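Sequence decides. Consider this:

===
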Amino acid sequence: MASSTTQFSLYLLLLTLFSATQSSQSLRDLKPNPNHPSTSLQSITDVHDLLPKYGLPRGLLPDNVRSYTLSDDGTFEIYLESPCYVHFDELVYYNTTIKGKLSFGSVSDVSGIQAKKLFIWVSVTGMHMDEGSDSVEFYVGALSEKLPAKQFEDVPVCKTKACRGGAGAGIESI
């Protein structure tokens, strides 16, 4: 049961990253965290290094990112080498193109990420993390789930096939 709860939380986190939320925090101006060094955002070539500048953990996206674009209003597109799966607490699917809007501490209007909850795939629509928080909230439509931010510190390895199982467990293709 704990594994299912964690997986659901991951899916909701991914949903939060990619969906537009109606909260006032998602309407904040696109600004990096003033507590981080003032690196030019245009000089950041790895999107995983950009996420912490906006108060988000590096591991929200898989390791096979080919390129990304970020406009002044926070609208972004992320291009992966291929679609893939990552197993956090839940199984998550990343399409080859992920779109959304980035602002400090949140991602809204997300498309291209789905999480498997029980027997169905749900689209992650947004993600939010309060400054100083130890959890990331994922949105799937009107529902949300908080997952420990520690799960997303490291960039996850992308798999071409969906797998069920964790470390030390037998892994089988789905």
User: Anything to note?
Assistant: The domain at 2-173 is CATH 2.30.240 (at5g01610, DUF538 DOMAIN). The chain has two helices and eleven strands.
